[in-house]
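Changelog excerpt: complex records now keep ligands as SMILES alongside chain sequences, and the structure block spans every component. Example after the change:
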Amino acid sequence: MNDEFEDYAFATRAVRAGQVRTPEGEHAEPIFPTSSYVFGSAAEAAARFAGEAPGNIYSRFTNPTVRTFEQRLAALEGAPSCVATASGMAAILSLGMALLQAGDHVVCSRSVFGTTVVLFDNYFRKFGVAVDYVPLSDLDAWAAALRPNTRLLFLETPSNPLTELVDIRAVAELAHAHGALLVVDNCLCTPALQQPLALGADIVVHSATKYLDGQGRCVGGAVVGDAERVGKDVFGFLRTAGPSMSPFNAWVFLKGLETLPLRMQAHSAHALALAQWLEAHPQVERVYYPGLASHPQHALASTQQSGYGGILSFDVRGGRAAAWRVIDNLRLLSITANLGDTKTTVTHPASTTHSRLTPEQRAAAGIGEGLIRVAVGLEAIADIQADLARGLDA
Ligand SMILES: *Cc1c(COP(=O)(O)O)cnc(C)c1O
């Protein structure tokens, strides 16, 4: 982290960390759409290429707008280093390519983003990296899955769509006792609600596409952590292979970070109000939201997170037909699988994000035919409720 911001509160870092004013004296952060940079002399060019002098060479490596985003996110996660990437998946790919090698073993939560599983199973496996999956909250299963060659543990908490949690500190202790690293995908909470590095995790990955942007505009990602593994190893892969973030996208994310604490509080307040309303609705069988006292891990959520987040799911009585009726009666909310937007989005996981699983696998994962996921946005809560009520009351 930029040392100069260590003493400032989270909201202040979100607005100001990482900005370096040019001689023009601009107040807002500028966008630098340039692929390369000029040198004052042949000797200066040689020194930069040799790594002996600081400064930009080429935007596959570094760009001032991207660097401002990286430093601001690093300041929010409480880390010395951040590497911005072209997407959330590019962040996970870069992490694996930098830190894993043939013969390594990964233990991964069963409840991670579907494409993360595809990346591990179809691509990392091809290069000799073995992966085993464990139920997220089962600490005994994490311990039992460790092998002598386990190098990395990977999880998301809370999970999507069922909002299951795991104690990050406990998994970090397991990982470290075994000489392995804990990586947390902090996409759903963002550092505004949960700071995994302070709980013992080694590295955080992000899909900036979601709440860091916050308005559904750009695709991007980041890897956050220490200067050696992230600042040197992950950066080394990025500058070589090139899944770099564009300066324009970095600028959008940078402006998104400025309102992140406010937005995450508002998303959490809206989601809690909607969860409480759904829980009292006669057509709703069960609501999954960590902010509800009925959530089995409500106590853990209350200590590990400083807010409960914007994602909730619920089971409608009547299975798929009833769930589709709710979705097809929407007039305001968006039928789309994205999340982390000011606009509320609604999905039916069994027929979309989890449709590749067999019915048995879905049942084992708790993804019922009546399950609906809502990524609660910032519209008036009464309008969100009224839109869902139309289908529920039909
Ligand atoms: C969306 C998402 C990703 C992938 O990010 P992209 O920006 O779409 O590549 C990874 N993890 C989680 C938890 C996500 O929601």
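The chain is about 40% helix and 15% strand. The radius of gyration is 22 Å.
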